[in-house]
Amino acid sequence: MAIGDYLSGAAATGSGMDPMCGGFEMSKKTRLYGFGICFVLGFAISLISTLLLTVGSVAGFAVFYTVGNVVSLCSSGFLISFKSQFKKMMDASRLTASLIFITAMVVTLVVAFTLKNVLLTLICCLIQFLALFWYSLSYIPFARDLFKSACGGFFK
């Protein structure tokens, strides 16, 4: 299936209609705008989180960092549909990374609000980042294998 089919929504329903958007059709241009806006907005929100950390707001940092990651992740839903995105997250090749990512988001917020421990919160955010990175690599053919081989010497 061509990328144009994904962008037009034909992959989701065969008709260009996106069932996860209330049946509204999204043009290629709209999907690309949605992707770009969500991706940039997610990155900006994550950047703002670092400012909150510098002023000592661990909970604010955790919330903004986690929300930034979720918004960035949602950006790909505009390209392939949100329903398809959710299904792909549950594929066997992505399930572990997806579950670690979701768990790390929850644990990050719990640690930040209950323990208020900066170091543990940063570790949870690092786990979020690594899980999202590993999940994202699964969409690029052979990227995980290439990454493993590139880091192979580092871990030996």
Description:
This protein has one domain. 80% of the residues lie in helices and 0% in strands. The chain has 8 helices and no strands. Helix 3 packs antiparallel against helix 4, helix 4 packs across helix 5 (82-89) and helix 4 packs parallel to helix 7. The model is unreliable at 1-6 and 8-17 (pLDDT under 50). Belongs to the SFT2 family. Pfam families: Got1. InterPro entries: Vesicle_transpt_Got1/SFT2, Vesicle_transpt_SFT2.
Q: Enumerate how many helices there are, as a single number.
A: 8
Order of helices and strands: HHHHHHHH
End-to-end distance, in Å? 40 Å
- Radius of gyration equals 17 Å
Count of structural domains: 1
> In terms of quaternary structure, what is this?
single chain
Mean pLDDT: 85
Tally the beta strands: 0
Approximate strand percentage:
under 5%
Q: Report the uncertain regions.
A: 1-6, 8-17
Categorize the overall geometry: globular
Structural class assignment: mainly alpha
The helicity comes to over 70%
Secondary-structure blueprint of this entry?
Layout lengths: L2 H6 L1 H4 L14 H27 L3 H23 L1 H8 L2 H24 L2 H20 L5 H13 L1
Helix pairs in contact: 3-4, 4-5, 4-6, 4-7, 6-7
